[in-house]
Amino acid sequence: MFVFEKANHKYRFPIISLCLIFLTLCTLSIDQIDSYAFTPKKEFGISFIASFLFNTSFVEWTTNAIYLYMFADNVEDVVGHFNFFFLFFFFGVLANLTYFLFHINSITPVVGTSGVVSGFLGMYFVFFPNVKSTMVFEKVAFRDVPIFISLSIWILVQTYLYLVELHSNVQSTYAGQVVTFLTGVVIAQILIKNHFLDRLEHNLRLTTFQNKVVLCPSCNQPIPAEKYGRFHCTKCQTNFFFDRKGKKFLP
């Protein structure tokens, strides 16, 4: 299952997201990645904070890079460059720590950025729940699905896969993905209470250089607004009503 973001307006250029994507691409050129893979039964070392910068194949890197480009850039927009950089490594370490706790005697090495991606998906889930997305399964796709629905299904799938592999005594990183996703949800809630989203909306409004503008509640696209009333976002196809009391979604 894949989830693709449809549209989301940004204030900051996602320089950290792009640099980290490029860094993980560069690590593909390293032949001996086993020395950077994290193995719970071995002594903790550089692999504990480096394994999530590596991927086992170009296909795996492409998948993680697409998710980082689509979702993490908007998280960086909300939290700022420095906080985003910290969160990238925080989620990576948390994913490895989860793998360690769930498979403490494992000699199976792991690498991959999926735990980091899951953490940012959890934050995106809270920050932009109404952004439209496309869910793609093996033979079918669903368009214009609110992100809170598509990512809810996504995390349920990850949880199911973990339970299946747990029952089969297979060691996987799905537990780390679930834990980082839920942690991202909690962190995002804390940041909202500290007005991070309010500051982003204020900055987005200032960048339009217009006195009369309303931001789409789904994707933050600036829309000219001469007066209160009904609005339609052409970028994400969201209908909403805006007056002195705020914004309200319309069918």
From TrEMBL:
<dbReference type="GO" id="GO:0004252">
    <property type="term" value="F:serine-type endopeptidase activity"/>
</dbReference>
<feature type="transmembrane region" description="Helical">
    <location>
        <begin position="107"/>
        <end position="128"/>
    </location>
</feature>
<feature type="transmembrane region" description="Helical">
    <location>
        <begin position="174"/>
        <end position="192"/>
    </location>
</feature>
<dbReference type="InterPro" id="IPR022764">
    <property type="entry name" value="Peptidase_S54_rhomboid_dom"/>
</dbReference>
<keyword id="KW-0645">Protease</keyword>
<feature type="domain" description="Peptidase S54 rhomboid">
    <location>
        <begin position="48"/>
        <end position="193"/>
    </location>
</feature>
<dbReference type="GO" id="GO:0006508">
    <property type="term" value="P:proteolysis"/>
</dbReference>
<keyword id="KW-1133">Transmembrane helix</keyword>
<protein>
    <submittedName>
        <fullName>Rhomboid family intramembrane serine protease</fullName>
    </submittedName>
</protein>
<keyword id="KW-0472">Membrane</keyword>
<dbReference type="GO" id="GO:0016020">
    <property type="term" value="C:membrane"/>
</dbReference>
<keyword id="KW-0812">Transmembrane</keyword>
<feature type="transmembrane region" description="Helical">
    <location>
        <begin position="140"/>
        <end position="162"/>
    </location>
</feature>
<keyword id="KW-0378">Hydrolase</keyword>
<feature type="transmembrane region" description="Helical">
    <location>
        <begin position="82"/>
        <end position="101"/>
    </location>
</feature>
<dbReference type="Pfam" id="PF01694">
    <property type="entry name" value="Rhomboid"/>
</dbReference>
<feature type="transmembrane region" description="Helical">
    <location>
        <begin position="45"/>
        <end position="70"/>
    </location>
</feature>
<dbReference type="InterPro" id="IPR035952">
    <property type="entry name" value="Rhomboid-like_sf"/>
</dbReference>
